[in-house]
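ok here's GTPase Obg:
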Amino acid sequence: MAGSNFVDYVKIFARSGHGGGGSTHFRREKFVAFGGPDGGDGGKGGSIILQGDKQYWTLIHLKYQRHQFAEDGEHGSGARSSGKDAKDIIIPVPLGTVANRIYENEDGTTTTETVGEVTADGERLVLLKGGRGGLGNWHFKSATNQTPRYAQPGEEGEEGTFILELKVLADVGLVGFPNAGKSTLLSVVSAAKPKIANYAFTTLEPNLGIVEVRDHKSFVMADIPGIIEGAHEGRGLGTRFLRHIERNSVLLFMIPADSDDIRRDYEVLLGELTQYNPELLDKERLLAVTKCDMLDDDLIAEMRGHLPEGIPSVFISSVSGLNIQQLKDMLWEALQR
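and the structure:
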């Protein structure tokens, strides 16, 4: 994937700002011999925050900005003047970004903990909070201590290493072996222009397209790179793109009509998804038998008896347009369920 602009995995190191210290200042003016404490509070340190931005579709902007450091808050001063709060670092990320924090254990191993995910435009996720500013000495004046000579120091910021993963947000995800016709279908039902060629792994990154159905209704379809047997163990493009399927509401399995055994191919695909994440079994599933432009009605009727049971299916051809509208209607109905 050298030269690709699609980056869906990046590791960053971030540090939030320290809070400013409170002031121990005393009021000193002409004709006021013993002015009381008037030290101001310190300002808050800057936080590190992710913010969803629908204009972004990749994490490439963070590939060369892997260190994110926020500034410290200013210290307080006399006349109860508070220090200035530091600016937060706002990192725009595409919708579907998951943040995981890495912790190093004493035995040298690492533990990963999910901080949260950003799925809506404008949604914010705080990775690291900035330190709070310390209180000035005027807060500590009392009947028994009229001249407190101490103030709170600012709270220290935090630092940590994070892995940001993008899981493409789409309504329908296309699942199939390489060269099953997924990119061709996406190019026919939407305005997307994925690379199409007659060899395996033409698609090396997810492609999204908006599919118009009827009455100005539409949904988003994602063309995921082809899956091969053993993908859940990292074979082929492996788990690098299997995670994008997790966010799809409906999975459209695509198997070409010239397959030696459509039922077995479906079971292999389903098995790879299940071993990667068993929760994928809870999603709506449909089957499209592709490249059917050369089949007659009798042959299609005969092939129906060899399809997997319990899953709605349709025979299509992206080249001739066979049953494409029916497929879109079926997908829309599945999305409503």
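+1. Residues 17 and 45 are 4 Å apart (CA to CA).
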